[in-house]
Amino acid sequence: MNQKKLLVPTPHIDALQGDFAPTVLMPGDPLRAKFVAENFLEDVRQVTGVRNMLGFTGTYRGKSLSVMGSGMGMPSISIYAHELFSLYGVESIMRIGSTGGLQDRVQMNDVIIAMGASTCSNVNRHRFMGGDFAAIADYCLLETSVQKARELGIRHHVGNIVSGDLFYDPRGMELFRQYRKMNILGVEMEAAALYGVAAELGKRALCLLTVSDHIFTGESLDSEARQNSFTDMIKLSLETAIAV
């Protein structure tokens, strides 16, 4: 019992040391993590399942990769990213999630490669001693993902997104119109925190997002499609992971 406790570093992840690959793909939905593991990885094994936040490790084209859910929101991804980076030897985390599109040129099922992540949250101000931290992606991951998207013929956009604390924001369309004016491509709830954790710990992070709904046109995918599709984004993240 005592020996097992020494091998399990956190109350949030019950994997053992060495169970995670250096690169982790991180969707918000743990069932999407399971979908990726079962449909894209080989020699897969589940390595964690605390609170049903499923994590798996396998191989893709011969390279060891892991995939694990993050849950919704910046507090949740901050916990998992911090522990993976600081305790499990993970070097890179790529969030693979969904976003609400804001620009007319951003269409349903397009992939957004988040060069930066603005936020209305104070999460990174706490890390940056009250200042405004520029939450940006690791350049190597960013450049590689753009190259791979072009090679794969995936319709994509590169630019700024925004990570919000509130899904149901009382400011409503007034807020989204301001984001749109500032050329924000999409809105989601995790990337700014992931970029902040990676910077704090000297690690690498990237956020890839599939447009699952559009704020201004009202188009939207159903929950099953969100869980089991997003194939372009998944392939892009896998090809990026094995290239860096």
Automatic annotation (TrEMBL):
Name of the protein this chain belongs to: Uridine phosphorylase
Keywords noted in UniProt: Glycosyltransferase, Transferase
One Gene Ontology MF term: purine-nucleoside phosphorylase activity
Span of domain Nucleoside phosphorylase: 24-230
Entry's family note: Belongs to the PNP/UDP phosphorylase family.
Keyword Glycosyltransferase: yes
Reaction catalyzed: uridine + phosphate = alpha-D-ribose 1-phosphate + uracil
Matches recorded under InterPro entries: DeoD-type, Nucleoside_phosphorylase_CS, Nucleoside_phosphorylase_d, Nucleoside_phosphorylase_sf
